[in-house]
């Protein structure tokens, strides 16, 4: 007698049915249900939201922001500067080699407009400056010998000596004497400074688009020797007068020359490379960069010294310089049409139009008088079995529509006969009020939908 063949386990059979059901459902096509609501106010809201979204994308995103372009910010840049002019003070004539620091002609440089000179300083002993804290004294006991104050002028000797003028006394120090406050002389260089000319030579390069350009016109007739910058007539003559720069920054030149300050020359290269290269032009703007209205840190000054020998001893002239520092700042952005950002922004625009549908659905199902009727028309309710008739794969297959529905009634009456099961899926109970614009043939259409949930009979 032949041995009976072993039956496959129930779990394997259920898994096979689930796999076949998922494979079959993979090739199904689903489409949303469309309901037309004849309501003028809701329609106005829907079209208004769509119009606002379209205006935002068409005007701001595509026209103003030019989001159809691939862009690059921060061009590679080089700046070369050169100052020309001559001025004088109460004691001497100054040329460009003396009042421009540093002389290399970079993007940051200073033009000295006032100096405080302490001449003939030598290494020795002298009274400390009264501006140094704890420098005032009455007797030698007030001065600690070999004390070094980081904000002072030298190493203290321990003696209390009379100050340079007046009856005050300060501690004696060993250092460069006399100290700055005791013998400094002020000189003003700003009388002719407004007429100084500054050449700012700038060239930029956008590596992504292989685009380069400079701010000087290519002419061989000595154009730069006789021109100055004018935004309309000479935009490619980058020669600016110092007085013009200070005026455009909104500052008073005499006041700025006495206290010093920092002026920014901003060159902006915004280029639309879909147009010709002649449309890509530099735009200049000027503004003060240092905190003008903060007394503790306003103004600009620095110190330097000139060294020489007198009778074999080291001597120096200390100069505290006040001036106008120029910072040349270059920035910009270039853009050119590219298919990828265009497609991305178009897809974003088309997707954003759906916000109008979401908003109107929320109004329709929340605030409208017949919101329950609209909800019944919009959503179909499907009966699910009260008990699981098998393992979870079978239940999932039932939901996917790949197995016959279980003989469970949709109604709550437990005594109802199972001989005539309700249709699958079964609708919720009909609402008490009907829509005014529902045609007379709607019930028959609903009946056919209920008996044929997938609508295959109408295809």
Automatic annotation (TrEMBL):
<feature type="disulfide bond">
    <location>
        <begin position="137"/>
        <end position="160"/>
    </location>
</feature>
<keyword id="KW-0547">Nucleotide-binding</keyword>
<feature type="region of interest" description="Disordered">
    <location>
        <begin position="410"/>
        <end position="459"/>
    </location>
</feature>
<dbReference type="GO" id="GO:0005524">
    <property type="term" value="F:ATP binding"/>
</dbReference>
<dbReference type="InterPro" id="IPR001429">
    <property type="entry name" value="P2X_purnocptor"/>
</dbReference>
<keyword id="KW-1015">Disulfide bond</keyword>
<keyword id="KW-1003">Cell membrane</keyword>
<comment type="subunit">
    <text>Homotrimer and heterotrimer; functional P2XRs are organized as homomeric and heteromeric trimers. Homotrimer. Forms heterotrimer with P2RX1. Forms heterotrimer with P2RX6. Forms heterotrimer with P2RX3.</text>
</comment>
<keyword id="KW-0406">Ion transport</keyword>
<feature type="binding site">
    <location>
        <begin position="82"/>
        <end position="84"/>
    </location>
    <ligand>
        <name>ATP</name>
    </ligand>
</feature>
<feature type="compositionally biased region" description="Polar residues">
    <location>
        <begin position="441"/>
        <end position="451"/>
    </location>
</feature>
<keyword id="KW-0812">Transmembrane</keyword>
<dbReference type="GO" id="GO:0070588">
    <property type="term" value="P:calcium ion transmembrane transport"/>
</dbReference>
<feature type="disulfide bond">
    <location>
        <begin position="143"/>
        <end position="171"/>
    </location>
</feature>
<dbReference type="GO" id="GO:0016324">
    <property type="term" value="C:apical plasma membrane"/>
</dbReference>
<comment type="similarity">
    <text>Belongs to the P2X receptor family.</text>
</comment>
<feature type="disulfide bond">
    <location>
        <begin position="126"/>
        <end position="177"/>
    </location>
</feature>
<keyword id="KW-0472">Membrane</keyword>
<dbReference type="GO" id="GO:0033198">
    <property type="term" value="P:response to ATP"/>
</dbReference>
<feature type="binding site">
    <location>
        <position position="320"/>
    </location>
    <ligand>
        <name>ATP</name>
    </ligand>
</feature>
<comment type="function">
    <text>Receptor for ATP that acts as a ligand-gated ion channel.</text>
</comment>
<comment type="function">
    <text>ATP-gated nonselective transmembrane cation channel permeable to potassium, sodium and calcium. Activation by extracellular ATP induces a variety of cellular responses, such as excitatory postsynaptic responses in sensory neurons, neuromuscular junctions (NMJ) formation, hearing, perception of taste and peristalsis. In the inner ear, regulates sound transduction and auditory neurotransmission, outer hair cell electromotility, inner ear gap junctions, and K(+) recycling. Mediates synaptic transmission between neurons and from neurons to smooth muscle.</text>
</comment>
<dbReference type="Pfam" id="PF00864">
    <property type="entry name" value="P2X_receptor"/>
</dbReference>
<feature type="binding site">
    <location>
        <position position="197"/>
    </location>
    <ligand>
        <name>ATP</name>
    </ligand>
</feature>
<keyword id="KW-0067">ATP-binding</keyword>
<protein>
    <recommendedName>
        <fullName>P2X purinoceptor</fullName>
    </recommendedName>
</protein>
<feature type="binding site">
    <location>
        <begin position="301"/>
        <end position="303"/>
    </location>
    <ligand>
        <name>ATP</name>
    </ligand>
</feature>
<keyword id="KW-0675">Receptor</keyword>
<feature type="transmembrane region" description="Helical">
    <location>
        <begin position="346"/>
        <end position="368"/>
    </location>
</feature>
<feature type="transmembrane region" description="Helical">
    <location>
        <begin position="44"/>
        <end position="62"/>
    </location>
</feature>
<dbReference type="InterPro" id="IPR059116">
    <property type="entry name" value="P2X_receptor"/>
</dbReference>
<dbReference type="GO" id="GO:0004931">
    <property type="term" value="F:extracellularly ATP-gated monoatomic cation channel activity"/>
</dbReference>
<keyword id="KW-0407">Ion channel</keyword>
<dbReference type="GO" id="GO:0001614">
    <property type="term" value="F:purinergic nucleotide receptor activity"/>
</dbReference>
<keyword id="KW-0813">Transport</keyword>
<dbReference type="GO" id="GO:0042802">
    <property type="term" value="F:identical protein binding"/>
</dbReference>
<dbReference type="GO" id="GO:0007605">
    <property type="term" value="P:sensory perception of sound"/>
</dbReference>
<feature type="disulfide bond">
    <location>
        <begin position="227"/>
        <end position="237"/>
    </location>
</feature>
<dbReference type="InterPro" id="IPR053792">
    <property type="entry name" value="P2X_RECEPTOR_CS"/>
</dbReference>
<keyword id="KW-0325">Glycoprotein</keyword>
<dbReference type="InterPro" id="IPR027309">
    <property type="entry name" value="P2X_extracellular_dom_sf"/>
</dbReference>
<feature type="glycosylation site" description="N-linked (GlcNAc...) asparagine">
    <location>
        <position position="195"/>
    </location>
</feature>
């Amino acid at each position: 007698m032949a041995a009976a063949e072993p039956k496959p386990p129930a779990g394997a059979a259920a898994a096979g049915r689930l796999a076949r059901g998922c494979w079959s459902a993979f090739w199904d096509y689903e489409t949303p249900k469309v309901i037309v609501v004849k309501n003028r106010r809701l329609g106005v809201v829907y079209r208004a939201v769509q119009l606002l979204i379209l205006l935002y994308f068409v005007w701001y995103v595509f026209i103003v922001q030019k989001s159809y372009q691939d862009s690059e910010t921060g061009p590679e840049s080089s700046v070369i500067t050169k100052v020309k002019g001559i001025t004088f003070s109460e004691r001497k004539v100054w040329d460009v080699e003396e009042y421009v620091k540093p002389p290399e002609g970079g993007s940051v440089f200073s033009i000295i407009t006032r100096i405080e000179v302490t001449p003939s300083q030598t290494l020795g002993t002298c009274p400390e400056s009264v501006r140094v804290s704890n420098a005032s004294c009455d007797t030698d006991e007030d001065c600690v010998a070999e004390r070094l104050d980081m904000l002072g002028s030298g190493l203290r000797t321990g003696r209390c000596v009379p100050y340079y003028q007046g009856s005050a006394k300060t501690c004696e120090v060993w250092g460069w004497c006399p100290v700055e406050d005791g013998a400094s002389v002020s000189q003003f260089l700003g009388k002719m400074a407004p007429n100084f000319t500054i050449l700012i030579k700038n060239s930029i390069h956008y590596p992504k688009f292989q685009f380069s350009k400079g701010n000087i016109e290519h002419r061989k007739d000595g154009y730069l020797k006789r021109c100055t910058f004018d935004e309309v007539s000479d935009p490619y003559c980058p020669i600016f007068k110092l007085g013009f720069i200070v005026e455009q920054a909104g500052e008073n030149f005499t006041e700025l020359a006495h206290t010093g300050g920092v002026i920014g020359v901003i060159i902006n290269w915004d280029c639309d490379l879909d147009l010709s290269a002649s449309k890509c032009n530099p735009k200049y703007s000027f503004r003060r960069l240092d905190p003008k209205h903060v007394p503790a840190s306003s103004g600009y000054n620095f110190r330097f010294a000139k060294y020489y020998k007198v009778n074999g001893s080291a001597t120096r002239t200390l100069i505290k310089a006040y001036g106008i520092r120029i910072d040349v700042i270059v920035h910009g952005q270039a853009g050119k049409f590219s298919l990828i950002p265009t497609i991305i922004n178009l897809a974003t625009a088309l997707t954003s139009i759906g916000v109008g549908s979401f908003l109107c659905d929320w109004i329709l199902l929340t605030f409208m008088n017949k919101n329950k009727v609209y909800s019944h028309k919009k959503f179909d309710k499907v009966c699910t079995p009260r008990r699981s008739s098998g393992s979870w794969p079978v239940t999932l297959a039932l939901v996917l529509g790949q197995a016959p529905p279980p003989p469970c009634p949709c109604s709550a009456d437990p005594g109802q006969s199972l001989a005539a099961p309700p249709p699958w899926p079964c609708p919720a109970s009909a609402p008490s009020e009907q829509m005014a614009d529902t045609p007379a043939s709607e019930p028959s259409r609903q009946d056919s939908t209920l008996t044929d949930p997938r609508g295959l009979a109408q295809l």
